[in-house]
Structure formats: structure tokens, C-alpha cells
Design goal:
- This protein has 199 residues and is of the alpha/beta class.
- The protein is globular and about 60 Å long.
- Strand 10 and strand 11 form a beta hairpin.
- Helix content is 34%, strand content 30%.
- The chain has one domain: Rossmann fold (3-Layer(aba) Sandwich).
- It has 6 helices and 11 strands.
């Protein structure tokens, strides 16, 4: 299902509304994958028929850390499945001349050191922004992180895993390469622009 929906997203004729809807749907499916091995604990509850011990996610609430602005497309779908999750916003954009990350905003929940943090951004291209975002989270105490993206380039995966070998990467597809402007090929274009109708 993820691959099918991703194919429709890649199509340049897919509308803004369609792109947003598909990204949200894929986020649901990927959220399941990135959380499939969370530790559970048994808690007492009462059903309409009996008292039982039932499984629940152990520990502090999850944190979804969105790299603005495109990360919000994945964030919305993930919050559909885990509405109690805390949210961090990390404002980092890629300078189109240098391809280097520029930070302009950071806001995160407390006790990052006691939480699983899932960093979300649709594209892992050069990985400069993603590496910088994870570095910022670690500087504030985070030590249990995962990175979730829709598409990745081999160059981005290499850079990211060299910078943060302790952070697993979850992606729907690994594409061929980056072009001279740092875009993933064949890719799907700029995810933020396609989501929000900007240029």
C-alpha cells in the first residue's frame, strides 16, 4: 500500500489536495512500522465484563519531532494514530546556494532524555537538515531517536548514518541519486511546495 500510494504522489499531475491526503495516509502506515517494537507493560483495566491486565505502551509519551515545514505532512498522519504524543518543532531550511542547514526555530517538550523521539521529514536528500535537527535534539538531552522519511537518497543515508550511527532510518523508498541541486532523483519534487502549493 505504501508503494502504491507513493507512486501516485510521485506523479506530477497529482493535485495538492491529493498529495496531502496521500502523505497523511502513508504516515499512518509508516507510523505503525516505526512503532511496532515499542516496549509494552501490563496495566489493570476494567472491561464491561471483567477486570483484566492489558498491554499499554510503557514509559513517557512519545515525541514526534517535525522538521518544518514539510515534516508537518507526516506529523499530521502520525498524530491521527498517536494523538497523545508530544510534538517538537524544528525550524531548519536548506540554503539553496550552499545546501547547508540554517536553524530558525526550536521548541520541544520537557524530559527529552526519557522519551522516544521520532524525527519526521519527508525527504532525506543531502541529510544536512536532518543531521542538524538530530544534533539539536541530542544537545537538549535526547538519546533514544528514530528518523522517519518518505524518500531517501543513498548520499543522504550515508551522511546521516555517519553523523548519527545510533539513529535508525525508516523510509518508504531509496531512490537513485541526488542531482546537482541536491534534489532526490527520480523523487517527487519539493515535498513542501507540493503540499502547500508554493514555489
Amino acid at each position: 500500500m505504501i508503494q502504491h500510494k507513493l507512486t501516485i504522489m510521485r506523479d506530477k499531475e497529482t493535485s495538492i489536495a491529493g498529495f496531502r491526503r496521500l502523505l497523511r495516509e502513508i504516515a499512518h502506515l509508516m507510523c505503525y512500522e516505526v512503532t511496532r517494537d515499542l516496549e509494552l507493560e501490563m496495566i489493570p483495566i476494567e472491561t464491561p465484563l471483567a477486570h483484566i491486565e492489558a498491554p499499554a505502551i510503557k514509559g513517557k509519551k512519545l515525541v514526534f519531532a517535525s522538521i518544518l515545514r514539510a515534516g508537518n505532512g507526516l506529523l499530521d498522519g502520525m498524530l491521527d494514530l498517536v494523538p497523545a504524543a508530544r510534538v517538537a518543532h524544528i525550524g531548519i531550511y536548506r540554503d539553496h546556494e550552499t545546501l547547508q542547514p540554517v536553524e530558525y526555530y526550536f521548541k520541544a517538550p520537557s524530559e527529552l532524555e526519557n522519551r522516544l523521539i521520532i524525527v519526521v521529514d519527508p525527504m532525506l536528500a543531502t541529510a544536512n537538515s536532518s543531521v542538524a535537527a538530530v544534533t539539536k535534539l541530542k544537545e537538549r538531552g535526547a538519546n533514544n531517536l528514530r528518523f522517519l522519511c518518505l524518500l531517501a537518497a543513498p548520499e543522504g543515508i550515508k551522511h546521516f548514518t555517519e553523523a548519527h550511527p545510533d539513529v535508525p532510518v525508516f523510509t518508504a523508498a531509496i531512490d537513485s541519486h541526488l542531482n546537482e541541486k541536491g534534489y532526490i532523483v527520480p523523487g517527487l519534487g519539493d515535498a513542501g511546495d507540493r503540499m502547500y502549493g508554493t514555489k
